[in-house]
Amino acid sequence: MSAAAAKPILYSYFRSSCSWRVRIALALKGISYDQVPVNLIKDGGQQFSAEFKALNPMQQVPALQIDGITLSQSLAIINYLEETHPNPRLLPQDAKKRAQVRMIADHIASGIQPLQNLSVLKQMGEKKMEWAQNCITSGFQALEQILQHTAGRYCVGDEVSMADLCLVPQVANAERFKVDMRPYPTITRINKALLELEAFKISHPSRQPDTPLELRA
């Protein structure tokens, strides 16, 4: 079997929100893949191994080997899947809605998640919980306001989009860091609706090959 025809391989960590985004996209598009867990905590972080650094010089998950190439960065991966497997679409046909989807995805992927990422929290010492809460809270205040203008059933209208793939993992992070979600009814409502969808269930951190027993669904 040629490299281009081989089954895709996702290097993932069960709790990584960026990996979860990609797992949702693969599930929605019905793409079968193998998963190689990369434990971000064990052995000082398996992402720092020479083997993984050769695969992704940024030493982060996810990384996806697909069609003979290796891609990192979750939104770049999702955009590639969107272009090569257009159904069901994750970017609306309407240019304005498509821009709104990208805006919300970037708001989360650039403006919230990196600030409370594991590598940053390690630097924060005892203040890591407070730091994560502040980063997520300020981001969610803006996001709630944006969604009040763009949302239908989901983040932008009534179709699942790339924005939704970013929202659900970020809400899970917020819950993990004990963020009070009461001020964000729109975020909460959309998240609840999305978690009822099969693609979001099977990609959930509680149902991955590397999920510890005590956290399994």
Automatic annotation (TrEMBL):
GO terms for cellular component: mitochondrion. One of its GO terms (molecular function) is maleylacetoacetate isomerase activity. Its main location: cytoplasm. Keywords: Cytoplasm, Isomerase, Phenylalanine catabolism, Transferase, Tyrosine catabolism. The keyword Isomerase applies. Signal peptide: none annotated. Residues 6-89 form the GST N-terminal domain. SUPFAM superfamilies: GST C-terminal domain-like, Thioredoxin-like. This is Maleylacetoacetate isomerase.
